[in-house]
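Take a look at the protein record below with the fold in mind.
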Amino acid sequence: MSEVKPRVITLLPSATEIVCALGFEHLLVGRSHECDFPESVKRLVVCTAPKFDVVGSSQEIDRRVRQLVTQGLSVYAVDEARLRQLKPDLIITQSQCEVCAASLEDVERAVCELLPSRPQILALEPRTLSDIWEDIQRVADALSSSERGFELVGELWNRVDAIASAARSSRDRPVVCCVEWLEPLMVAGNWIPEMVELAGGYYPYAESGSLSRRIEWNELAEKNPDVILIAPCGFSIDRSLREIDKLTSHPLWSRLKAARAGRCYVADGNHYFNRPGPRIVDALEMLAEIIGPERFEPKKWEGKGYKRI
């Protein structure tokens, strides 16, 4: 008798990448509208849609998102009819940030009201690198492949350790600022502070695991970073560059050490820094190249994952 294969829907990009990295892309039957890696997942049925117009400036997008959130609404809608048609056995979503995925409440309501199959709901909650590894293992466990989860996490940890070991060879720890949104200006929290430390930098803007936050220009100037990395949430390099003048035209920009030294970079936040999945280690490699260029040659990611501005 042939084995019954579970039908899986992933409602956030990092979950889709985790399932694929574990070797189970063939189990996927549906995805979120933002899931786009690997390229082959674009064939899957799309099960979510934004409730607001995603076209506009960073300030306009921020205003639209905040209006929904303050009303107690998720920023993404779940296509309940498609969920019903797909008859999933496992739905993977995220409970930490409703800007990143369909809300857990919306998914649970759709499942309870519409899906007689009562699929398992796995909600990921990453705040730190350790959380990301644990989520990878939780997905592997849910797919009855715990051993493959251990293997993948081990492979990722080995890469992290190699980067950290190389970074420790230098006594110089430049101050690094990672910008997660342009207007209003926000600095990255969650796993980013830990990544900066592993890559050889010092991050005075947030503690590991803390939420990303707004920052005033006076605070940015006071801490006067040696390196600035701009990786807005959900933005590609080209998308960020279209609004880079929000930073570079500010009167305090030219006074920053990073700007004077030409150590300001823009990275693909959407695909790397903002996705708590396997490619977060690629983002760590980028940080290491940016923070300690003399220790990481040749540059694997320059021009591909990040650019100097």
Residues 164 and 290 are 14 Å apart (CA to CA). The longest helix spans residues 146-167. Residues 8-125 form a domain with the Rossmann fold fold (CATH 3.40.50.1980). The longest strand covers residues 176-181.
